[in-house]
Amino acid sequence: MTTVSRSIPSSDELDDLLSTPSPGTIEALGRLEGDLLVLGVGGKMGPTLARMAVRASQMAGVKRRVIGVARFSRPELPAWLKQHGVEPVPCDLMDTQQLARLPDAANVIVMTALKFGSTGRPGDTWAVNCWMPANICQRYPDSRIAAFSTGNVYPLSPIAHGGSLETDPLAPVGEYAASCVGRERLYDYFSRANGTKLSIVRLNYACELRYGVLVDLARQIQAGEPIDLTMGAVNVIWQGDANAMTLQSLAHAASPPFVVNVAGPETLSVRRICEHLGQLLGKPPVFSGSEGPDALLSNGSLGHQLFGYPRVSIGQLCEWIADWLQRGGELLGKPTKFQVRDGNF
Within 13 Å and on the Cβ side, how many CA atoms surround 91? Predict the structure, then answer.
């Protein structure tokens, strides 16, 4: 477990911490051969994951290109990536001609997805979450692929059961979750048809100081907004640990696909974590509703066994977030909407 100060002074130091590789990540990237392509590098996790891949490769003594692909709606990101050893390549992954022109790579991480704003746009949702991955699989049939999925492929499960396992039946709730199951089925099809080695990473939920479930709750507490307790429990994992586990999953890619939950070890009570955040912020939370008997929960035990226990505890993360918010730290303004129970995002 990482032990550092109760304060992270700046976004630069935050990004440095988020991209610090674990020993397992260094070992895994030391054993893998070939370049690494990160598709969808422009999202919340992409930049620090790509930078972690560069750092882990360097620390393992392996020379490889790490290439970050995105449309780059944030104009400052390509320069940031270059500064940290990642080659930025602009591409609209929905354009098959642009996809065909991307560099070959032995290792590919697919981070693209459409979730928020997907309600009312079912065609866009299915195209981004299913058609695009199918095209990627056909473009890179001989590569080792780690593909992001989500815990939303599972149904709500009884809180006392400790979360869904990788072997549990999938029962998506809502259009977005259904498209995510469709995405996994297409990965499975192309993996079996072409022998493509794949790992499917079901993430639930990554958090740092600028976004995430705990940031959403802490901001509500600060603002005096009532916190809905209907979704009474949640999984949270430090984004740096999620980055490390995802990169390590490349070494486990297989045909048919290897599937792993990337989730924190605890089933967190929303009420209790808010009371703790309230103490750190000096403001008691306001609640509405009452806890339901079930929640969207994933059991992350397999990932912890294979990739190591999370280095940053929930207690440490809460301290960092409270300090960050009290100092007016940068925020991404992208709520998780983890409270949604009907699948409409």
Answer: 25
**For the chain, how far is it from start to end, CA to CA, in angstroms?**
34
Rounded-to-integer distance, Cα 15 and Cα 23, Å: 18
Read off the pLDDT of residues 215-269 as tens digits, 9 standing for 90 and up: 999 999 999 999 999 999 999 999 999 999 999 999 999 999 999 999 999 999 9
Mean pLDDT across the stretch 1-17? 81
Q: How many other β-carbons are positioned within 10 Å of the β-carbon of residue 12?
A: 9
* Closest to 184 (Cα-Cα) out of 192, 204, 105: 192
Predicted confidence at residue 3, as pLDDT, reads: 45
What fold, for 11-209+237-265+297-306?
Rossmann fold (3.40.50)
Note whether 136 and 99 are within 8 A (CB): yes
State the Cα–Cα distance between residues 288 and 225, nearest whole angstrom. Answer: 10
Domain ranges of the chain: 11-209+237-265+297-306
**pLDDT at 1 (0 to 100):** 40
User: Sign (positive/negative) of CA torsion 21, 23, 28, 30?
Assistant: positive
| CA 121-166-269 angle, 5° bins | 80
Contact 246, 287 (CB under 8 A): no
Structure tokens at 57: 């490769």
What's the pLDDT at 195? Answer: 98
Cis check: omega of the bond before 284, within 30 degrees of 0 = no
147 sits in the region (left: phi over 0; alpha: psi -120 to 50; else beta) called beta
Residue 120 has pLDDT above 90, yes or no: no
For residue 315, the number of C-alpha atoms closer than 13 Å in the C-beta half-sphere is 5
pLDDT of residue 118: 54
Checking if the pLDDT of 8 tops 90, the result is yes
DSSP state of 170: P
Backbone angles phi, psi at 87, to 5 degrees: -85, 115
Spatial distance between the Cα atoms of 306 and 310, rounded to a whole number of angstroms: 11
